[in-house]
């Protein structure tokens, strides 16, 4: 798909690739399979696809549903989660044909919107996560990231691995790396004048160093550190699953290699999840 502004092209391409994969994954599902649990906490396959539909409808500017959430949704622990759940809960009793037809129609509408998009990247639009206004480029980056992660949720659920190195994977990599300095410096409390190295291998490979300055502020770059306080090595799938809160470190500890300060490494991994 070609969009008018080149700054948006990467995100449009990644979004298209992932959302079409989601459509293909759910198209053959029978009714009972829509109730399968996914790695996304609290959500079934139906819930996850409902979220994708709802978020895209918000990007289209559709009115939000007028809907009161039940009080027994124990996975709702934040205002963002509560905001997102409205689009999910309103579709909880939709049938398989209703789900697939609404998804397909929403994709058609969004494809048309992206093809005809003439707004500049800094145009303020409604965030599908909170309703607040954010730049259009940020919103499209968030959508590309979100649909790739949920595509992987579905692939995990139905044991159909793939697209770990798709365009959306690289958007996800950059999205998650942006959060890493805060995880290391603030959340895990790495000491001033220290460095932490992340060595990630697999379909998406990268080496990044988070450096904490004398004031305790973190920055990230692609150059190695000669004397890091700790080095954390893991594969890309484990990295994104930890960063997206799909698994806890204790359950994948055998896939994570730590060299150096183990206490700091465990504190970093304890705070590794950065998604709502």
Automatic annotation (TrEMBL):
Specify one Pfam family: MDMPI_N
The MDMPI C-terminal domain covers 171-265
The UniProt entry, under InterPro entries, shows: DinB/YfiT-like, Maleyloyr_isom, MDMPI_C-term_domain, MDMPI_metal-binding
Keyword terms: Isomerase
Instruction: Please list the GO terms describing molecular function.
Output: isomerase activity
Record's SUPFAM superfamilies? Answer: DinB/YfiT-like putative metalloenzymes (SSF109854)
Q: Which residues form the Mycothiol-dependent maleylpyruvate isomerase metal-binding domain?
A: 16-155
Q: Does the keyword GTP-binding apply?
A: no
Question: Which NCBIfam families has this protein been placed in?
Answer: maleylpyruvate isomerase family mycothiol-dependent enzyme
- Name this polypeptide is given: Maleylpyruvate isomerase family mycothiol-dependent enzyme
Q: Whose protein is this, by species?
A: Streptomyces cremeus
């Amino acid at each position: 798909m070609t969009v008018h502004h080149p700054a948006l092209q990467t995100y449009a391409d990644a979004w298209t690739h992932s959302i079409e994969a989601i459509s293909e994954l759910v198209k053959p599902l029978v009714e009972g399979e829509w109730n399968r649990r996914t790695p996304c906490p609290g959500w079934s396959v139906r819930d996850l696809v409902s979220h994708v539909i709802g978020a895209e409808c918000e990007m289209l500017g559709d009115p939000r549903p007028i809907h009161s959430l039940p009080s027994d949704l124990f996975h709702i622990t934040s205002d963002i989660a509560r905001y997102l759940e409205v689009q999910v809960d309103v579709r909880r009793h939709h049938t398989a044909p209703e789900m697939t037809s609404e998804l397909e129609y929403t994709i058609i509408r969004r494809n048309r919107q992206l093809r005809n998009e003439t707004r500049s990247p800094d145009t303020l639009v409604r965030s599908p996560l909170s309703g607040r206004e954010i730049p259009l480029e940020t919103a499209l980056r968030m959508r590309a990231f979100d649909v790739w992660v949920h595509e992987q949720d579905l692939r995990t659920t139905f044991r159909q691995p793939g697209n770990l190195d798709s365009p959306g994977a690289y958007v996800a990599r950059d999205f998650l790396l942006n959060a890493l300095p805060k995880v290391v410096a603030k959340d895990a409390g790495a000491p001033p004048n220290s460095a932490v190295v992340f060595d990630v291998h697999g379909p998406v490979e990268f080496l990044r160093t988070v450096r904490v300055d004398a004031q305790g502020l973190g920055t990230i770059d692609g150059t190695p550190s000669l004397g890091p306080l700790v080095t954390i090595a893991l594969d890309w799938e484990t990295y994104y699953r930890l960063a997206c809160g799909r698994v806890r470190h204790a359950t994948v500890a055998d896939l994570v290699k730590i060299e150096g300060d183990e206490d700091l490494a465990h504190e970093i991994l304890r705070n590794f999840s950065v998604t709502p």
